[in-house]
Amino acid sequence: MKRLPTYVLLAERIKAEWISRPDVRPGDRLPTQHQLRKMLGASRPTVAKALALLAAEGLVESRQGSGVYLRSAPLASTRTRLLSFIAPRAHALLVLRAYYGIERRARQRGYQLLMASSENDVQHEQELVEQHLQAGAQGIILYPVTRWRHQLPGDYLRYRWRDVPIVIFDIGYEEWERPMVLFDNFRLGYDMTQALLTHGHQRIAFLPLNPDCLHRSIHERREGWLAAMQDAGVPVPQSYLQWAPLERREENIDSEEVAHQLLQLSPVPDALITWEDSTAVSIIRALQKMGVAVPEEIRVVGFDDLESTHFFQPAFPTSQPDFTRLGEIAVEVLDEWLDGRQSTPRTYILSVPVLWREPRTLRRIRSQEGGSEHET
Questions:
Q1: CATH label of the domain that carries residue 23
Q2: Does residue 191 share a domain with residue 178?
């Protein structure tokens, strides 16, 4: 998957915060470049390139000696229809990747785009859906807040706005009976486990998640892990299956407690599949603090290929979900509904490759031994 340049991601963040909100108006002034640098933590050249990209897209205009403003007259289009994108965290990297694909494809199809953050609150998410519909949005791409089991029976998406095209993005539930665009997380969990087995790991554990937390991606990866172990004829110890499930909340898990529990499993795992990259990083640090060599004694893997982990050592395997492409597909599905070409909710599934990464020291050793890199 091709990574987006930093200035492109910065441009998407500026769109999300200052251009795509429903309360902005043509002619509104953006913060100065100096203010943007401080607020976004970016360099002057990066901010300048991001603004130049926005100007090239016809979204802003620079006025000599005055500043940068939203265009007072939007670029001509054969149709001006409005879509909405609502996500749990507007500035999370994965959301920005998705926004890039959604905004680009929406513009190509003649739509303007609203964006808002639900701040991981289901009630606020519902309020935003209502607000965006009142603002004129004809369809919504919803990256939903992860539900808990007790929330699902009375969820507003089961009962409200049944005649409104709402495409569910990345995490969804069949009970909603909505079109969904998702990643193939079962296959991803299966492929990650196969990669670990190929590299000689046999005692592979999966970080347990509270089953009442309906984070579909994680639960499907766990099912893929179990299936791959079964197909390979490698038994999963009961202690791995009975490991007390953890809560997944916005604050970080107690990684030192997790590492302690991991080392109490019998037999001690030689690999751990975590929920995503930042969880992997925190557990690796906790294991190292306890004197465990990673990955020599226990290999830890994550998911999502977050930029913040690209220079982390020891490097660890991850995945490369194409959120940009998933965003494009979501717009295409929504466009089909709005044009009457689709009327039955379908689920669209995108595959995800595994990215196998080794620490520098192991790469040197394997190179000296005539070994080769493995990438799925």
A1: 1.10.10.10
A2: no
Phi/psi of residue 115, each to 5°? -140, 145
Domain count, the chain: 3
Is 374 domain-assigned?
A: no
Nearest to 32 by CA among 62, 58, 72: 62
The token pair that represents 82 in the structure block: 């409005």
Contacts of 234 (CB under 8 A, 6+ apart): 197, 202, 204
Contact 282/255 with Cβ under 8 angstroms?
Answer: yes
**CA distance linking residue 181 with residue 222, whole number of Å:** 20
104 is in which domain, residue-wise? 81-183+323-350
The DSSP output letter for 147 is: P
What averages of pLDDT result for each successive group of 10 residues across the chain (376 residues)?
71 80 78 87 85 79 82 49 91 90 90 91 95 91 96 96 95 95 98 98 96 94 98 97 75 85 96 96 96 97 93 96 96 91 87 92 48 40
Residues 243 and 309 in one domain: yes
Q: How far apart are CA 64 and CA 30, in angstroms?
A: 14
Domain check: are 210 and 295 in the same one?
yes
